[in-house]
Design brief:
Elements (H helix, E strand, L loop, with lengths): L1 E6 L11 E3 L40 E3 L8 E4 L4 E2 L12 E6 L39 H6 L1
Antiparallel strand pairs: 1-4, 1-6, 2-3, 2-5
Length: 146
């Protein structure tokens, strides 16, 4: 699975660009997601707690990118990432975030995850992602037919 972050405003380190721990998607670990405003893992989340990266930034290979509207940053879904918030006085920070995955991905209920109130499809554990909440953007079958 890959994640796309698409800013609609210029974003710098001061205004809250995303920081990434380079190569963290390769460490083989599953980390517990945390709430956006604290270092607290979501209650009941699977995996191990995130290390205190903010308190030991010198111990990590952290990268970031200043971005402009229309830029797209793509990262692996297991890459440790986050933003420290918008510390600028007047610059807004708006962006869209999209997730793309292959047709081998299956649904899994995660009781600790925030509810997705906009989802209209009810799926059971093990179901392929389908329906209007999970549109197909490219298909091998369509490619073969073309």
């Amino acid at each position: 699975m890959l994640c796309l972050w698409i800013p609609v405003d210029p974003v710098t380190l001061e205004s809250g660009t995303i920081l990434y721990v380079r190569g963290s998607h390769r460490d083989g670990k599953l980390y517990q997601p945390n709430v956006f405003i604290a270092q607290t893992s979501l209650p009941g989340a699977e995996g191990e707690p995130l290390p205190d990266i903010e308190g030991h930034m010198e111990d990590y290979d952290i990268i970031h990118f200043d971005v402009e509207p229309g830029d797209v940053i793509v990262h692996h879904y297991r890459t440790i990432h986050g933003a420290g918030g918008n510390h600028s006085r007047y610059q807004v920070r708006r962006a869209a975030s999209l997730r793309y995955c292959g047709d081998d991905i299956r649904f899994k209920t995660r009781p600790w995850a925030p509810r997705q109130l906009h989802h209209t499809t009810r799926l059971n554990d093990g179901d392929p992602l389908s329906g209007p909440d999970f549109p197909v953007v490219w298909s091998r079958d369509a490619q073969k037919a073309a």
